[in-house]
What we know:
This protein is an alpha+beta fold and 265 residues long. It folds into two domains: 13-76, Arc Repressor Mutant, subunit A (Orthogonal Bundle), CATH 1.10.10.10; 92-250, 2-Layer Sandwich (Beta-Lactamase). The chain is built from eleven helices and eight strands. Strand 7 (193-199) and strand 8 form a beta hairpin. The model is unreliable at 1-8 and 250-265 (pLDDT under 50).
Amino acid sequence: MAGTNAASPGKSVTERAFAVLMSFDMGHRQMTLSQISRRSGLPVATTFRLLNHLEAIAAVQRDPAGRYAIGPKIWELGILAPTHDVIGMGTRPLLLRLATKSGMMVRVFVCNGERALCVEEVLANGASAPGSGPGMTLPLIESAAGHVLMGGMTPAARSALPLTRTAFARIEENIAAATERGWAQRSDAAGHVEYAVPIRAEGRPPMALSLSTPPTASAATRPGVSIETMIPEMRGVARSLAAILAPAHRTDSDPLATTRRESGD
């Protein structure tokens, strides 16, 4: 559940507003006032007042039934984050081609605390999986993407993760092996598999490109397609993504940036 201590004494208006916003997640994309109050840990009257302010600036939106959802302003701000602007950068055709060729689910992940956060997802038909897509998360220590992301962290950052000494040593071995071969692999008892390679984009925190079995499938890849052939494909896509996301590429391809340079802004 979202932070239940948000209403503790001393919390600022900003902290309470964020408690309201953070009460939303992939499993709670639309909620009533009472639900938001309960998940944020704020009184109903306070929650209502904050929602009114947030709605006025399009940070939340309300449907005719009175249910609230995250508003477009939050999306506009979130897309500016250095690791979250993959959507809309012309990367989707690359991901779709990889999904079509492999028959697997393609995702781009960034690090979000102790979890890998999906910022883009594509299936072979161009859609996202039900209950998945941008915004879903996977544990760093239990996902191939997470191992790749941890490989891009400093040892100090990894040591700050809540792991026992034994678990930390095992994770360090897995990360070292994945770093040496350039890709990571994870599988579960149900036969679902995930492969990941790093996206080394200039000026950005660690990112990972992931191929995984769709939730409704059990085969690792499309018949006749081996992961040995897909790893080079993934690496090629990762390099292309890194080039697209590079600062120089963004500046040159952004007409608004060109206008700003010409006007001296």
